Amino acid sequence: MIPPSFEYFRPSTIPEAIALLKEYGDEAKILSGGQSLIPMLKLRLARPAYLIDINRIAGLSYIKEEDGCLKIGGLTREGELEASPLIAAKYPILLDTTRVIADPQVRNLATVAGNLAHGDPANDHPATMLALGAQIVATGPRGARTIRIEDFFLSLFTTALEPGEILTEIRIPTPPPHSGGSYFKLERKVGDFATAAVAAQLTLDDKGGVETVGIGLTNVGPKPLKAGKAENLLRGKKVDTALLTQAGQLAADEAQPSGDLRGPAEYKKGLVKELAKRALSRALERARK
Amino acid sequence: MAKKQMVRVRVNGRDRHAEVEPRFLLVHFIREVLELTGTHIGCDTSHCGACTVLLNGKTVKSCTVFAVQADGGELFTVEGLIKDGQLHPLQEGFKEEHGLQCGFCTPGMLMSCYSLLEHNPNPSEEDIRWGISGNLCRCTGYQNIVRAVQFAAGKLSHEKKAQGAVK
């Protein structure tokens, strides 16, 4: 319960932070919200020799629309997302998601960027970002680069971030008119990780058919999953109940859940099917408004 | 052992400081260095919220923050609620409405409720239950905690109106 010993740095700029990451390599970890990392240190599941606290770096906390994108800064807290009128009005799928992450205290410190960078399939934002077709901006020793969200999650706790890189911004293309999205999560109690969860985002064409669609799955595989087959089924079609059920089934088939204390694998697959139907229905409802 | 670092914090309005290892948790700093034992350690897993305090105006689980992160900041603990021997309306509410039994979760509950009322002075029952969703209580079943907050909200708004009338 006592974390292992580490050296602690508190850089005031990104270049300083990157230099420290470069110097200490894989013995160093970024301390941002710390709401995933510190519990791991307390259980001694992680033993970084160096912690680089980036919380005092200015200019990394923002939620703004620019160049046709919603841009979320690397230090934006979940609580800020939750309280943002812009998010509530134009990106309700993000409000759905942030509200079911942990609890108010955790959301005061936890960052959206950290929720992605940790590479945990149990975290909620990955599925939502997959559904939204987001881009990650990683800043490292060789400057900044963008990574498509589909290429970001590699395996358990492993993302496409290279050594020395910090996740400094998340970019979400602003959905066109007749778009809607939602996130449905089943948890045993408030604050829990998902037994299963589904994010769905879609845009309708002027005939009411599905023009674009993205579906992300939480905690039903070794990494956050994109339900590509379900997406392919829906694309170009007008959605009715039968199609929703089919899409839900395809998403369930694509899920690779493990049986655990939250339930057996078959149960979780069943959940994916039902939650996919609900997420898609709510997304449609919002798109038709 | 890692090099110790200086931590300077304003705690319930008073400046305090100490040299600590970076791995020293804020909750241990509060309890063992500051000797403010109102803040409790209830679990090992960042779930229960008994360690909740306000750091720079926002509720945090002090067992999931390092003391060094509080350097230069402001800490508000349960000991800071009482003013000149007068109970805060929240404390009075927990007393009047029987919002505690064993009392172990209570300091964390009070801090979460304090923050809730700061942001939402007139919360609905649903708002209150959402506001305390990071604090576990094994004794009460939460309904008297809800009533305690409603009591405090009423008293605080009454006090506010009275102040307005005096002007």
Structure overview:
Chain A has helices at 14-24, 37-42, 78-83, 85-90, 92-99, 104-109, 112-117, 125-132, 228-234, 241-254, 265-288; strands spanning 7-9, 28-31, 50-53, 63-66, 69-73, 135-140, 143-148, 153-155, 158-159, 166-173, 179-186, 196-204, 210-218, 225-226. Chain A is of the alpha+beta class and 289 residues long. Chain A has three domains: 7-53, Uridine Diphospho-n-acetylenolpyruvylglucosamine Reductase, domain 2; 63-173, 2-Layer Sandwich (Uridine Diphospho-n-acetylenolpyruvylglucosamine Reductase, domain 3); 179-283, 2-Layer Sandwich (Enolase-like, domain 1), CATH 3.30.390.50. In chain A, helix 9 packs antiparallel against helix 10 and helix 10 (241-254) packs across helix 11. Chain B folds into two domains: 5-80, Beta-grasp domain (Ubiquitin-like (UB roll), Roll); 89-166, [2Fe-2S]-binding domain (DNA polymerase, domain 1, Orthogonal Bundle), CATH 1.10.150.120. Helices cover 37% and strands 16% of the residues of chain B. In chain B, a hairpin with a 2-residue loop joins strand 1 (5-11) and strand 2 (14-20). Chain B is globular and about 55 Å long. The mean pLDDT of chain B is 96. Classes of the chains: A alpha+beta (289), B alpha+beta (167).
Q: How many domains make up the coordinates of chain B?
A: 2
The CATH topology of the largest domain in chain B comes to: DNA polymerase, domain 1
Largest sheet composition of chain A:
5 strands, antiparallel
Per DSSP E runs of 2 or more residues, the count of β-strands of chain B stands at 5
CATH H-tier superfamily of the largest domain in chain B: [2Fe-2S]-binding domain
CATH architecture of the largest domain in chain B: Orthogonal Bundle
Beta-strand percentage range of chain B: 15-25%
